């Protein structure tokens, strides 16, 4: 599941090497972050000042709106946090644009977040819990089949960030698609393209968003996003799914390492860890080189044995 890119392997990677690995449902692990970290003083500031000032579970910078959300205080603390996350968002964006130029074409650059709290034992409601294995559904409203890419850095000085997985979307759809009620009946396909009213609704919201009502987009939905949400909820709500060790793997990301993954494709749970930077991007399905193994295409047909279990 983990594909390690140290500095020399990264240097020799071609323009589609990393994205092919991601599309095949692997997590790309960088023992050394390829993105420069904030300064040591800024990292200490994030770790020491933010946990006590949280209004939400994370502090997030929205580059489109140039807004910082999730912090209870204003003034110097908010300004410094804003500056740190804005700079980090730019550096991650620059790295990904250089490393995967075709894959990021037409993408949406989402939030740059700092996660200040210990993930273990947070006792969040099941649907909000990171400790339960799931695939991500929706990001900033409907995705319409576009892919959710996340780039992480562990900023804890000594503690690794522990993750678990139960495999790829393709494997889980094959195993649980029918039970979860997300698969079309055998012998029939399940078109996920929205009908005319759905398409009109989405384009109206996109227009409102462009006109300045940026948050209009978050209430958008689509048949694809509703099915993904159902699968996400099935995973988190089903104790047998969480308890099963079929395809189960655990790994730890050491302090200051980085990793990236398509979180709509790779099932994941964060078991423990504190202080992480997480950047989110929406990659267009039309920029993918292997769209037939994307959830959007898989969900339109009854589950079949996974085409490939190994990465490209
Ligand atoms: Fe997730």
The ligands found in this model are: fe (ii) ion
Order of helices and strands: EHHEHEEHEEEHHHHEEEEH
Side-by-side strand order of the widest sheet? 1-2-9-6-11-5-3-4
Summarize model confidence as the mean pLDDT.
89
Count of discrete alpha- or pi-helical segments spanning 4 or more residues: 9
* CATH class term: Mainly Beta
Choose one word for the global shape.
globular
Q: Strand-residue fraction? A: 15-25%
Count of DSSP E strands? Answer: 11
So, CATH architecture?
Sandwich
What is the helical fraction, as a range of percent?
25-40%
CATH fold-level topology: Jelly Rolls
Structural class: alpha+beta
Low-confidence stretches: 308-312
Profile the largest sheet.
8 strands, mixed
Radius of gyration, in angstroms, nearest whole number = 19 Å
Ends distance: 12 Å
Short description:
By secondary structure, this protein is an alpha+beta fold. The protein has helices at residues 7-11, 17-23, 40-49, 76-99, 169-176, 196-210, 223-237, 239-243, 295-298; strands at residues 2-4, 27-30, 59-62, 67-69, 108-115, 147-154, 161-165, 249-253, 258-262, 269-272, 276-283. Fe (ii) ion is lined by residues 134, 136, 263, 268.
Please, could you describe this protein's structure?
The N and C termini lie close together (12 Å). The chain has 9 helices and 11 strands. Residues 308-312 have low confidence and may be disordered. The protein has helices spanning 7-11, 17-23, 40-49, 76-99, 169-176, 196-210, 223-237, 239-243, 295-298; strands at 2-4, 27-30, 59-62, 67-69, 108-115, 147-154, 161-165, 249-253, 258-262, 269-272, 276-283. The chain is globular. It has a single domain (2-298), classed as Jelly Rolls (Sandwich), CATH 2.60.120. A hairpin with a 4-residue loop joins strand 3 (59-62) and strand 4 (67-69). The strands form 2 sheets. The protein has an 8-stranded mixed beta sheet with strand order 1-2-9-6-11-5-3-4, covered by helices on one side. Strands 8-7-10 form a 3-stranded antiparallel beta sheet, with no helix packed on it. It is 30% helix and 18% strand. The protein is of the alpha+beta class and 312 residues long. It binds fe (ii) ion (FE2). Fe (ii) ion binds at residues 134, 136, 263, 268.
């Amino acid at each position: 599941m983990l594909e390690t890119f140290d500095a020399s392997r990264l240097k020799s990677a071609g323009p589609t090497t990393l994205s092919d690995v991601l599309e095949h449902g692997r997590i790309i692990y960088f023992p050394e972050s390829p993105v420069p970290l904030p300064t040591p003083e800024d990292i200490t500031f994030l770790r020491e000042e933010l946990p006590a000032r949280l209004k939400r579970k994370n502090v997030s910078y929205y580059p489109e709106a140039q807004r910082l959300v999730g912090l209870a205080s204003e003034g110097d603390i908010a300004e410094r946090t804003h500056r740190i996350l804005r700079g980090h968002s730019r550096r991650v964006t620059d790295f990904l644009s250089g490393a995967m130029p075709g894959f990021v074409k037409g993408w949406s650059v989402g939030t740059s977040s700092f996660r200040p709290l210990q993930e273990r034992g947070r006792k969040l409601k099941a649907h909000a819990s990171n400790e339960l294995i799931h695939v991500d559904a929706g990001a900033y409203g409907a995705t319409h089949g576009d892919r959710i890419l996340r780039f992480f850095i562990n900023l804890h000085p000594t503690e690794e960030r522990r993750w678990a997985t139960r495999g790829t979307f393709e494997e889980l759809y094959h195993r649980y698609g029918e039970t979860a009620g997300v698969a079309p009946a055998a012998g029939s396909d399940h078109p996920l393209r929205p009908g005319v009213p759905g398409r009109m609704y989405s384009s109206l919201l996109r227009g409102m968003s462009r006109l300045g009502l940026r948050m209009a987009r978050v209430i958008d939905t689509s048949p694809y996003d509703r099915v993904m949400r159902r699968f996400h909820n099935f995973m988190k709500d089903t104790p047998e799914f969480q308890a099963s060790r079929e395809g189960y793997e655990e790994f730890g990301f050491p302090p200051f390492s980085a990793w990236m993954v398509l979180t709509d494709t790779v099932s994941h749970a964060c078991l423990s860890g504190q202080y992480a930077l997480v950047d989110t991007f929406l990659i267009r399905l039309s920029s993918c080189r292997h769209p037939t193994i994307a959830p959007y295409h898989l969900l339109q047909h009854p589950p079949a044995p996974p085409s490939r279990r190994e990465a490209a």
